[in-house]
Write a structure and sequence with these properties.
The complex is a heterodimer.
Chain A: H1 2-18, H2 21-34, H3 39-63, H4 67-110, H5 114-131, H6 134-145, H7 150-157, H8 162-170, H9 180-194, H10 198-209, H11 217-245, H12 256-302, H13 316-333, H14 339-365, H15 368-371, H16 378-404
Chain B: H1 13-17, E1 21-23, E2 29-32, E3 35-40, E4 46-53, H2 55-62, H3 64-77, E5 86-89, E6 93-96, E7 100-102, H4 106-109, H5 113-121
Parallel strand pairs in B: 1-7
Antiparallel strand pairs in B: 1-2, 3-4, 4-5, 6-7
Helix pairs in contact in B: 2-3
The chains are: A mainly alpha, B alpha+beta.
């Protein structure tokens, strides 16, 4: 019974934890402009994150070391450092976007300008990183994030023509109102949002925080293979809801408020309240995860003590990094840069950094020195290799497409 | 090769030691093996005598301008005129798996100057630094 509970809890937190500000904004925007014609990208991205999260979780459970602890050994200090700087920059950008998302969610709930909420939101995130136990943090925000299911209910309540929706999703084509480069620019953005690098940093380090061993492999796999796809369903539901409300009237989603509008239209105030709780939990949880990921990666490269399984004073450098990251995030947001714009750029730059994150995982998961008999099987390697090609293509296409389409305008 | 301290198995110094995490008996993370100290043996072979850690050891391996600056800044921050990188004698190594396990506690090894500085001057001044997460 206790084991069953652990599995259920893990799956639920994986669903809630999968969706963050990048997924919400990108899916809502894409839904409002392209309908469900890009849903295939979400499906592709979810399979990809499952493949690599399973690998990095397995590395953590078998070797007792998070994946990026091992990357420097196999790539060497030079390439490892370049890798660290690039993935760190992207994760920090995502962290900034998530804190901005928390503030925007609070603005929607309170009508107090988000800029006033930013210092408070940043402080609250830091406080959780400083004092709250890892498992409590994950469970509370993961479970609250499940309230985003309200988007699926909203789609159902809006009473769409299901066969048209299915046709759009299953026979993807560039809508008449858009050109091909823009379509593929948003394909890259969605792919980056689904496979955001911090998810695997966080997943493998979290495995070490929670002291996974070889016995936990089954639970870990269930969480990944059930939880992430259901998180992907939430993402598609968000896209479907904005497709139903905004696409016919030709309005593009630019704000977090618009993301929630379809829920308000179909389910009224109560629905909107639930959606706001979902926004808050998803962004706050992801802010904690990205903030920790910044600290994890830097500490793991240099060999510093990291983690929330020790008291803060025992991991002083790690906690100084968390503090500096939070201050940086607050400072950048207080320049009045639009958090939604930050989010849009963060998912595209995530796509650029994808190969740096996923190539080393594939190497380490194939290393018998760490993995013994639990090295990648044929399926994992075949999927891993295919995705490496996809990820490389997305990374190379991202910047040219961004310039060509003026960032999707 | 450090056959002296870990009998029964030969280790490739570059593959099994360099850049590996050093862990103390309590499971606390000490540092990375940033560089190795080697000595000539009479029979002409090289033997690992110590694990070197910290920016002073890592900088030269990163190389280029970044590596150069790392070492320069590290030298500036140290009080002694000719600072040496952190050094852990190979005799302290207990075992090697996905990490290098040493027999002495993190504090006793004493290779984490920056950690102590951050501890004394920043982290321990914030309320709650000594509490377990709740």
């Amino acid at each position: 019974m206790k084991r069953l509970f652990a599995v259920a809890l893990g799956i639920l937190t994986a669903i809630g934890g999968f969706v963050d500000i990048g997924d919400m904004v990108t899916n809502a925007l894409v839904g409002s402009r392209f309908g469900l014609s890009l849903a295939w990208v979400v499906v592709t991205g979810v399979i990809g994150i499952c493949v690599f999260a399973e690998m990095s979780g397995r590395v953590a459970a078998i070797s007792g070391r998070p994946t990026f602890d091992l990357v420097r050994e196999r790539l060497g200090p030079r390439v490892g450092f370049a890798n660290l700087v690039a993935s760190m920059a992207v994760t920090l950008l995502t962290f900034i976007a998530e804190i901005g998302g928390v503030a925007l969610a609070l603005e929607l709930a309170s009508s107090v300008n988000y800029l006033l909420w930013i210092p408070l939101a940043g402080f609250a995130v830091w406080l959780v990183l400083w004092r709250v136990k890892f498992s409590l943090m994950e469970n509370v925000f993961g479970l609250l994030g499940l309230s985003l299911i309200v988007f699926a209910v909203a789609v159902w309540q809006l009473g769409p023509d299901w066969s048209t929706l299915w046709n759009d999703a299953s026979r993807p084509s560039v809508p008449a109102s858009e050109d091909a480069p823009t379509y593929f620019y948003y394909a890259v953005a969605l792919f980056g949002a689904a496979m955001t690098p911090y998810e695997v940093f966080f997943f493998s380090s979290g495995g070490v925080e929670e002291r996974w061993g070889p016995r936990d492999l089954t639970i870990m796999r269930t969480n990944v293979l059930v939880g992430f796809p259901l998180g992907g369903v939430l993402s598609v539901a968000i896209a479907a809801s904005t497709a139903l409300v905004f696409l016919p009237v030709g309005v593009q989603v630019d704000t977090l408020g618009q993301v929630g509008l379809p829920v308000a239209v179909s389910l009224g105030k109560v629905g909107l309240a639930v959606a706001l709780i979902g926004f808050f939990a998803a962004t706050f949880g992801a802010a904690c995860e990205t903030g920790l990921s910044v600290g994890y990666s830097i500490s793991q490269y240099f060999g510093w003590q990291w983690g929330k399984y020790v008291r803060p004073r025992e991991a002083a450098r790690f906690h100084v990094v968390l503090l500096l990251a939070t201050i940086t995030g607050i400072a950048v947001l207080l320049t009045t840069v639009d958090p939604v714009k930050v989010t849009e750029y963060s998912v595209v730059f995530s796509a650029v950094a994808l190969p740096l994150t996923y190539f080393p995982i594939l190497i380490v998961a194939n290393d018998p020195d760490y993995m013994g008999e639990k090295v990648n099987g044929r399926v994992a390697n075949a999927l891993g290799s295919v995705y490496l090609v996809l990820v490389l293509a997305a990374a190379l296409a991202a910047i040219p497409l961004m310039i060509l389409t003026k960032a999707g305008q | 090769m450090i056959g002296e301290s870990v009998p029964g198995r030969r280790y490739d110094a570059a593959l099994h030691l360099l850049d590996r995490q050093i862990v103390d008996p309590d499971g606390r993370l000490v540092a990375k093996v940033d560089e190795l100290e080697l000595a000539d043996r009479p029979d002409g072979r090289l033997v690992v005598t110590a694990l070197l850690t910290g920016p002073g050891a890592l900088g030269p391996r990163v190389g280029g301008r970044i590596g150069h600056w790392t070492v320069a800044i590290w030298r500036r921050l140290r009080s002694e005129p000719e600072p040496e990188p952190g050094r852990i004698d190979v005799a302290d190594v207990v075992s090697i798996d996905s990490a290098v396990h040493v027999g002495r506690r993190r504090r006793a090894v004493g290779v984490d100057g920056l950690e102590r500085w951050m501890h004394d001057n920043v982290v321990s001044r914030i309320p709650g630094a000594g509490h377990d997460p709740e």
